[in-house]
């Protein structure tokens, strides 16, 4: 499983908690409103009804407690009600003179619009306000957290180039403060690890995960997730023994916490390693557990991955009927699922393998073709992503060089101004790179098509010219022979001249050799002519083919008669006979012209 999908395993726990909180905080007020017609604004009118507990907590605990209340009660209500409640939290922060809590209000407002409006200018503005507020009030930890949250906002919505400078700057700020002095530092390091993992930088991802595990995590699940992610990295590098070690660590922690979701994930990952090593008997129980738990928590994408692995094992053991049923289940799970191209590739491959084992080679070939097509699509997509990663890497290097220069100069004011400019430049460069790449690809494709068309047109033109010249040469030679025949007939009627006349009258330029050469040239211009004739009229002879070919060239009866060494009447009769043989309703010349 990928790190960005690991947190999905938390859905069951979060959903259950969210449901309970909804019952406590939303359902009961809604019943009261239904009975007494209480307006929505009245429910959210008093900030203390939501955040008054913050007043009784020590300063280090306030932000986390406020965040939990916000997630339970504010994220999914109307914007007006949510902002009204957060205004109340801001008032409490002012009352307590708690600048850190006041800064967190900006984070929560930005988060609300992020959750409900996706990528938006309001969240960007609020995160920037948080950065400015923290700097103006000399809050180094809150400044670093605000910068980190801005980077994660960009990263969440795939604005990778814009995210990187913020995340890098935030990590540098955390390091200058001291990781030990930053509450929840393991979470921020893990965020950066997931960012690196998603762009394929597994080396830096492992460094961040290893560092994150040195510090206390908010929950045991966070620790399990980080250990599991290191196992995934080792699995990617095919270091299977190390991968198994980390997967087993995450499994033991999950068992200690009786976390069934993570037990399933860890066992599925262990099974995947065994499968990669062709240890099918060891792999099956673990992968089956992963499949069951994925279905339990409605993780259909992970369920498909696990089920396809089970299918591969069943095909290996020649359990083809079971594999076919499981493949049908996998297909139904994948329908309407986004971004499952890898799973479709595995599905087509396994369908082909199943049919090959069953001896159904036609069906196997069908799915093998689908497999190759899907694999080509994935390869093209990966090529594009690799190109973009190269551009991103160059931009990362540029940013690092700029940051190092700024650190040397110690020009704090310039850092702020340059960070904004750098982000805009990075976005612009990425846009230009992607746009130019697409234009270049389109231009190359168009040029390639035009070049291919020119080559084909030139070949066809040359073939037509060769056929025309060849036909004209035969026609001229036939005319010359016809003239000699006429002159020979006028000679004296003795035995020598009679022999010459008999031999010359029998001369035909459409010999077998000439016919083969002629046919080759003709096929270049009309490649399907002979094939279509043989397919539609298998009863016609080679002599019939010669006549039909000359008709296709629109030669008149006299020219055909000359080339075939027959009389004009013979050509006419041959046409009539051929029309009957082919059972044509209309004229044979019109039929051949249309072919």
Polypeptide structure, described:
By secondary structure, the protein is mainly α. It has a domain of 121 residues. The protein is built from 28 helices and no strands. α7 packs antiparallel against α8, α9 runs parallel beside α11 and α15 packs antiparallel against α16. The longest helix has 78 residues. It starts with a helix and ends with a helix.
Radius of gyration: 40 Å
Calculate the terminal CA-CA distance, rounded to whole Å.
Answer: 58 Å
Query: Can you count the helices?
Result: 28
SSE series: HHHHHHHHHHHHHHHHHHHHHHHHHHHH
Number of strands: 0
Overall, the morphology is elongated
Largest sheet properties = none
User: Residue-averaged pLDDT, rounded?
Assistant: 81
Estimated share of beta-strand residues: under 5%
Poorly predicted segments: 1-47, 500-509
Structural class: mainly alpha
Briefly summarize what is shown:
The protein is an all-alpha fold. It is built from 28 helices and no strands.
List keywords for this structure.
mainly alpha, 28 helices, 0% strand
List the helices and strands and how they pair.
Layout: H1 3-6, H2 11-36, H3 40-43, H4 48-51, H5 59-73, H6 79-96, H7 99-117, H8 121-136, H9 140-156, H10 160-177, H11 185-198, H12 202-212, H13 220-236, H14 240-256, H15 260-276, H16 280-296, H17 300-316, H18 320-334, H19 341-358, H20 361-409, H21 412-489, H22 495-505, H23 512-525, H24 529-536, H25 542-552, H26 557-564, H27 568-582, H28 588-594
């Amino acid at each position: 499983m990928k790190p960005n999908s690991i947190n999905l395993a938390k859905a069951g726990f979060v959903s259950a908690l969210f449901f309970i909180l909804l019952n406590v905080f939303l359902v009961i007020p809604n019943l009261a409103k239904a009975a007494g017609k209480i307006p929505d604004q009245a429910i959210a009118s008093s900030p203390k009804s939501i955040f008054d507990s913050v007043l009784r907590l020590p300063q280090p605990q306030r932000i986390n407690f406020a965040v939990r209340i916000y997630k339970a009660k504010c994220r999914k209500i109307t914007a007006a009600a949510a902002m009204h409640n957060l205004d109340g939290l801001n008032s409490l922060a002012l009352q307590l003179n708690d600048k850190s809590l006041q800064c967190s209000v900006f984070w929560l407002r930005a988060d609300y619009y992020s959750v409900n409006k996706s990528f938006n200018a309001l969240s960007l503005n609020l995160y920037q306000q948080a950065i400015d507020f923290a700097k103006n009030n000399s809050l180094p930890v809150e400044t670093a957290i605000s910068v980190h949250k801005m980077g994660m906002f960009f990263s969440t919505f795939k604005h990778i180039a814009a995210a990187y400078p913020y995340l890098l700057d935030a990590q540098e700020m955390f390091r200058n403060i001291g990781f030990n002095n930053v509450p929840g530092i393991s979470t921020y390091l893990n965020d950066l690890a997931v960012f690196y993992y998603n762009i394929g930088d597994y080396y830096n991802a492992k460094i961040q995960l290893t560092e994150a595990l040195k510090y206390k995590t908010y929950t045991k699940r966070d620790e399990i997730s980080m250990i599991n992610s290191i196992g995934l990295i080792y699995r990617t590098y095919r270091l299977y023994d190390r991968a198994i070690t980390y997967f087993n660590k995450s499994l033991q922690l999950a068992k200690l916490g009786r976390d069934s979701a993570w037990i399933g994930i860890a066992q599925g990952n262990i099974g995947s390693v065994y499968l990669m090593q062709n240890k099918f008997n060891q792999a099956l129980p673990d992968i089956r557990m992963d499949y069951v738990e994925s279905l339990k928590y409605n993780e259909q994408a992970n369920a498909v991955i696990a089920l396809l692995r089970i299918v591969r094992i069943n095909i290996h053991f020649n359990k083809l009927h079971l594999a076919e049923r499981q493949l049908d289940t996998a297909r139904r799970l994948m329908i309407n699922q986004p971004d499952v191209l890898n799973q479709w590739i595995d599905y087509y491959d396994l369908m082909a393998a199943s049919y090959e084992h069953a001896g159904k080679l036609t069906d196997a070939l069908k799915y093998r073709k689908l497999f190759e097509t899907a694999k080509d699509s994935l390869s093209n997509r990966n090529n594009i992503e690799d190109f973009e990663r190269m551009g991103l890497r160059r931009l990362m290097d540029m940013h690092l060089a700029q940051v190092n220069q700024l650190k040397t100069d110690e020009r704090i004011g310039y850092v702020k101004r340059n960070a904004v400019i750098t982000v805009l430049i990075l976005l612009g460069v990425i846009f230009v790179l992607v746009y130019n790449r697409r234009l270049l690809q389109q231009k190359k494709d168009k040029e390639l098509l035009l070049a291919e068309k020119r080559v084909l047109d030139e070949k066809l033109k040359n073939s037509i010219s060769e056929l025309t010249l060849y036909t004209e040469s035969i026609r001229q030679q036939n005319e010359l022979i016809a003239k000699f025949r006429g002159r020979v007939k006028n000679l004296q009627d003795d035995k020598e001249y009679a022999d010459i006349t008999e031999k010359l009258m029998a001369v035909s330029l459409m010999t077998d050799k000439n016919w083969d050469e002629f046919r080759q040239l003709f096929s270049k211009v009309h490649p399907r002519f002979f094939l279509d004739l043989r397919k539609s009229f298998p009863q016609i002879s080679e002599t019939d083919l010669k006549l039909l070919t000359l008709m296709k060239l629109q030669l008149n009866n006299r020219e055909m008669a000359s080339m075939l060494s027959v009389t004009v009447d013979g050509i006419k009769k041959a046409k009539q006979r051929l029309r009957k043989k082919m059972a044509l309703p209309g004229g044979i010349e019109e039929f051949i012209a249309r072919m």
